[in-house]
Amino acid sequence: MAIPAYIQKTLRLKPEVEKIFDDLEAWHDHCRFNLLPFNPTDLYKSKEYRDWQYRKNGGKFRERKPYLGKNPRYNNDRISN
């Protein structure tokens, strides 16, 4: 018996939730291999996770673009890519 299309659509994970599970799995593997304590509730809060992300990205933090207001006028001088 085939599953109806509307049920298949609702059972898919949203991209945001999928990213959280992928991050959690990668962090769990890192903790397992390096014998670090693993606590899933401290995923984005722990200092070890932030250090690991920093090293994983090649020593670069992700830069945020500055908030330019509700109706921004894009100026290449103010935003660095």
Keywords:
mainly alpha
Describe this structure in a few short sentences.
This protein is mainly alpha-helical and 81 residues long.
Protein model, in words:
The chain contains three helices and no strands. It has a domain at 14-56. With 81 residues, it is mainly α. The chain has helices at residues 5-11, 15-34, 47-56. The longest helix has 20 residues, at 15-34. 1% of the residues are buried. 46% of the residues lie in helices and 0% in strands.
Largest sheet: none
Number of helices: 3
Residue share in β-strands = under 5%
Compute the CA-based radius of gyration: 19 Å
SS content category:
mainly alpha
Topology of helices and strands:
Layout: H1 5-11, H2 15-34, H3 47-56
